[in-house]
Amino acid sequence: MDPRTPCLVGVAQCTVREQPGPEPLDLWEETARAAAREARLSVGRLDSIQIVYTDSWQYDSPTGRLAERLGATPRHQVYSKVSGTAPQLLIGAAASEIAQGRLDSALVVGAEALATRRAYRLAGERVPWGHAADPKPPYGWERPPHPAELAHELFLPVHTYAIMETARRAARGQSVEEEMRERGRMMAPMTEVAAANPYAWRRSVRGPEELVTGNRFVGWPYTRNTVAVLEVDQAAAVVLVSTALADRLGVPADQRVYLRGWAYAEDTWEVAARPALGSSEAIGRAAGVAFERAGLRLDDMHALDVYSCFAVALRQACDAIGLDPMDARGLTVTGGLPYAGGPASGYVLHSTATMAGLLRAWPGHGLVTGVGMHLTKHAYAVWSTEPGGVLGDGAPVFTAEPVPVVDTYEGAAVVAGYTVAHGRDGGAERGYVVVELPGGGRAYAHVLEEELMADAESRELVGQAVRVTTDGKVNVARW
Fold this sequence. Notes:
Layout: E1 6-15, H1 24-39, E2 48-51, H2 62-70, E3 76-79, H3 86-99, E4 105-113, H4 114-122, H5 147-151, H6 157-171, H7 176-195, H8 208-213, E5 217-220, E6 222-223, E7 233-242, H9 243-249, E8 258-266, H10 281-294, E9 303-305, H11 311-321, H12 347-361, E10 365-372, E11 377-384, E12 396-399, E13 411-422, E14 428-436, E15 442-447, H13 450-458, E16 465-470, E17 475-478
Parallel strand pairs: 2-3, 2-4, 8-12, 9-10
Antiparallel strand pairs: 1-7, 4-7, 5-6, 5-13, 8-11, 10-11, 13-14, 13-16, 14-15, 16-17
Helix pairs in contact: 1-2, 6-11, 10-11
């Protein structure tokens, strides 16, 4: 084996339940030290420190502050942008640098303390954390939302993903009730996995019906218990080293896990620009290249963790790679983002760490996937206890061609996908629709009348002819 072959040799996870808890910097340090201990590596000799973007607090120098805490002077430091694919992109880049001999060790760590922030907010107290960036930097988008999405206040994933869910439901000819029942059956087994995971945020086993009918809607048809839970205090870290360094450190062979192959692909950044709202060619391309690079197939995987922020992310992945949502292997090793916890951009560190532990106990191969933005970014990684394959890099293996999006429109149109936003009191507040335009292209629009929102939730609205009006900034649909 090439002595530069990268291997994952240290993992750590942390979930804090007492509130208020520690700040992200504390969590980064705790998990970094724990992962390095497992790797038998002194934190002071880390070549690279890479941190997944945290929504909880904007530090003046995230990697610099952590390096200072650890007493490290890494040659390489990275702080990511916002994305659920960020952990895999960092891991993949670190593995590539190690394979090319430019690094021999790398730490990738992420943490959120959003539950603690909420606790301080509810108590009417200021968050007492230090090293704040001044001035506060812009939010860490890779690309900001489209002007039409901003004008229509359509940038929360709970609404954009729900639009794609209704489009998929209509394309498959399912009724509203059939989609809900199927979603409950798909996600209930995930609660069982979370219940057995000591790091999971929600550890209660729930039945299919309870998940979809026993709690309030957030972005219809999604209920609160079937979407990612963001307000968590969680952290995870992984340490990768070269095989030569692993040998020198005395890391046992059965503790080493290898990135056999991975790939990244992109759908459109704007939801309305998606060639097909209910499906994704990019997912299939990313998965296909990852398996090809690994020299393995889906059937070879012993375990799977499919990114699960919303049901449509699971479903589009299953559709694209030919995976039965009720596959006996299960869709998650952690319990998924709605139950194990969805720490903003950092979840894939948790699924990777959990997968590594599982593979060490049960040698073989595992698939870990990531999703970023509004089902825009897709990362597929094959991990194994057997070295081999072709590592690959983070260059997109596919980029979808967008459908034109019109900012404002007036005239006839047809609904392509939709949702109804609900408030904390459970009441419907506003409808959001993506409409197909007669001359080609799409547009966003609001639905404001209570009776129309109720109608939208009572039946299939996709395919409904509507009349769109505009005030020059925001479109409104009626039928």
